[in-house]
């Protein structure tokens, strides 16, 4: 509750009037005043200064004004009393309204809890039942904080910022309760509707079309509310106000992200799943046992169609079916050649060397069109951890005579198969069978819809699922989401300045939004052994320091990114098949692991230094899309450990803001980490 503030009464204006000139009156004897007599107000129609029983000039002598000092004192007291009464009334009114509006901070917690619960798949029925009463409460708090007396009091020192904060929160929460919560109810009912996913696994796309306008409004309102509350300076607020304001700000930002994703899904799913005609897509199964920037080497490629909400597998190829090309399938820039070599455009397995998925998708779709002869409408990629999340929703599947569950799929797919299948073609075929079995399980209607949605959201948040559309309008929307993975966004691209909660406050002197891909540094891993040993590699990337107080330049900060690597293969690793231990000349004994670590600074940023433990190390320096790039190779023997620290300049986060760092999703770490100012 906001502390009530009693306004200090101002100085009342001086009262009194000068006597009017006139003929001098004759002297009249006046008895001495009675010291015990108390002045009383004159009755209506009495001469000024007259009182019952008081001697003075007769009524017929109005030109005698009485003692001027006494008249001024009475008028001063009268005006001061009136002013005091008005101020006391205003203070009382303000205190009353403050008590009502302060409830808005309490209601904010309830609204955000309902919002979070609804977005997480909670009981939207209970939310729908309680929504009218909740909306009445938030409307009452908003009205109280919008009172004219309240708005006037916002100009007071000390108290003013606190009153402004309470009003801002009350308005934001009421907007969310009015526009966003009904859409959350509708979204929950949509997901729970048994008709949304038919028995054959197809989706009723009409339900998404009808839900899209409400979700658009909800996302827009919540984004605006998050921006308004996020712009408040909590340093000027008392603790009892600052704490709730920060919580509301964080909650609204999270909700805005979730509602934005829901809005995007409602707009994208119908056309992408064939509401306007059949579509053809490629599904890339990434193999995390051999790391690439996107999460793993391309292990298998499947083609599927989407028509009227139904998806069907139509073709499947191993990477050996898509032979390497003599020349890149598309022209590569000099920067791409310097950082990735021509392998990027010649091998389908290496199309994901770049962390920029739109570029990977363009290359893969061109390779498919050249080899198979059919164009595609889009490309999806998924790593094995995302597969495990989906299996948790669908239940076990069988591939190659082996049952795979969410708990066993990673070990079976990325370790056991390589021991059991010493021939690389057999291992590739098994990998393709697993992808086919999972696709069939999802497309045939297995699994709970909500559980499948949660699995996809989790995988997307960890950057384990990526999507690209060949249709520009759809790609513009995808690029603004985590699914788009548009890391190397160019000026003018949709992802270059992502519209997110607080985006207008996130822009700094660097000119880059710290929450867009363009504002993020990156640390990416690519296997250098040409083997399948990364199953035994543990990775951990953290933002060890983010120094904001002493910027290297206006609008910039300095980040220290720490990468810990630990390699723990089994004792008999040297006896694994050669395609597992690696065919590259790394200078290591059999069973050793080489990994290329590529660091990207944000556009305009710099890589200041790189250290292995405490020693400075160098790397191959280059640039790509206005980013400084450095690549170095780490070599680990079994049981080896390495800690790298890279210092880069980054766009300074806003107050209480954060910095995202993109990285390779591995079996042990997600594809994005976040840091906040440490000084």
From TrEMBL:
Annotated region described as Disordered, given as residue ranges: 1-70
Quote the biased-composition stretches of kind Low complexity, using this chain's numbering. 1-21, 39-55
Listed transmembrane segments: 77-95
Q: Which InterPro entries does the entry mention?
A: DUF4012 (IPR025101)
Superkingdom of this protein's organism? Bacteria
The record ties this protein, via Pfam families, to: DUF4012
- Name of the protein in its database record: DUF4012 domain-containing protein
Does this UniProt record's set of keywords contain Transport? Answer: no
Q: Which keywords does this chain's UniProt record carry? A: Membrane, Transmembrane, Transmembrane helix
Which segments show compositional bias classed as Pro residues? 22-38, 56-67
């Amino acid at each position: 509750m906001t502390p009530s503030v009693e306004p200090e009464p101002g100085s009342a204006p001086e009262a009194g009037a000068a006597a009017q000139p006139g003929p001098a009156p004759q002297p009249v004897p006046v008895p001495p005043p009675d010291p015990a007599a108390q002045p009383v107000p004159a009755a209506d129609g009495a001469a000024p200064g007259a009182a019952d029983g008081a001697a003075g000039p007769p009524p017929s002598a109005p030109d005698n004004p009485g003692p001027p000092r006494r008249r001024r004192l009475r008028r001063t007291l009268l005006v001061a009393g009136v002013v005091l009464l008005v101020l006391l009334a205003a203070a009382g009114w303000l205190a009353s309204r403050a008590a009502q509006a302060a409830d808005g901070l309490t209601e904010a917690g309830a609204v955000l809890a309902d919002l979070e619960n609804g977005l997480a798949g909670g009981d939207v029925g209970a939310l729908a039942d309680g929504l009218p009463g909740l909306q009445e409460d938030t409307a009452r708090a908003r009205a109280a904080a919008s009172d004219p007396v309240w708005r006037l009091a916002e100009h007071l020192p000390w108290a003013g910022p606190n009153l402004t904060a309470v009003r801002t929160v009350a308005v934001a929460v009421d907007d969310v309760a009015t526009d966003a919560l009904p859409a959350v109810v509708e979204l929950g009912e949509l997901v729970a509707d048994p008709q949304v996913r038919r028995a054959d696994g197809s989706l009723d796309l009409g339900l998404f079309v009808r839900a899209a306008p409400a979700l658009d409004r909800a996302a827009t309102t919540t984004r605006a509310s998050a921006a308004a509350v996020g712009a408040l300076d909590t340093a000027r607020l008392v603790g009892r106000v600052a704490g709730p304001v920060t919580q509301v700000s964080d909650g609204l930002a999270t909700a805005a992200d979730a509602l934005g994703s829901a809005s995007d899904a409602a707009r994208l799913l119908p056309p992408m799943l064939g509401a306007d005609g059949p579509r053809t897509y490629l599904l890339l199964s990434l193999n995390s046992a051999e790391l690439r920037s996107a999460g793993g080497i391309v292990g298998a490629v499947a083609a599927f169609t989407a028509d009227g909400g139904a998806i069907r597998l139509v073709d499947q190829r191993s990477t050996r079916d898509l032979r390497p090309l003599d020349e890149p399938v598309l022209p590569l820039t000099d920067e791409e050649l310097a950082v990735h070599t021509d392998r990027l455009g010649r091998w389908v397995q290496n199309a994901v060397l770049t962390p920029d998925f739109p570029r990977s998708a363009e290359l893969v779709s061109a390779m498919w069109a050249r080899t198979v002869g059919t164009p595609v409408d889009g490309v999806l990629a998924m790593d094995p951890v995302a597969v495990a999340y989906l299996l948790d929703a669908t239940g076990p599947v069988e591939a190659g005579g082996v049952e795979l569950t969410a708990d066993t799929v990673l070990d079976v797919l990325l370790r056991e198969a390589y021991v059991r299948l010493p021939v690389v073609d057999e291992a590739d075929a098994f990998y393709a069978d697993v992808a086919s079995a999972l696709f069939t399980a999802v497309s045939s209607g297995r699994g709970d819809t909500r559980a499948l949605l949660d699995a996809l959201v989790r995988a997307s948040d960890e950057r384990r699922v990526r999507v690209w559309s060949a249709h520009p309008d759809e790609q513009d929307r995808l690029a603004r989401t985590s699914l788009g993975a548009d890391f190397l966004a160019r000026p003018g691209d949709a992802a270059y300045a992502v519209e997110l909660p607080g985006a207008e406050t996130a822009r700094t002197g660097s000119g880059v939004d710290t929450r867009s891909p363009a504002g993020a540094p990156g640390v990416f891993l690519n296997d250098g052994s040409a083997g399948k040993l990364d199953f035994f590699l543990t990775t951990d990337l953290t933002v060890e320091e983010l120094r904001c107080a002493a910027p290297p330049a206006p609008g910039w900060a300095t980040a220290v990114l720490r990468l810990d690597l630990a390699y723990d293969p089994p004792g008999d690793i040297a006896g694994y098949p050669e395609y597992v231990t690696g065919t590259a000349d790394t200078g290591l004994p059999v069973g050793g692991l080489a990994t290329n670590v590529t660091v990207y600074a944000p556009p305009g940023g710099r890589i200041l230094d790189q250290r292995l433990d405490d020693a400075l190390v160098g790397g191959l320096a280059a640039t790509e899309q206005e980013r400084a790039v450095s690549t170095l190779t780490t070599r680990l023997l079994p049981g080896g450990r390495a800690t790298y620290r890279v210092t880069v300049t980054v766009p300074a986060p806003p107050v209480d803001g954060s910095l995202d760092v993109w990285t390779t999703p591995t079996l042990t770490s997600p594809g994005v980490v976040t840091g906040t100012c440490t000084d």
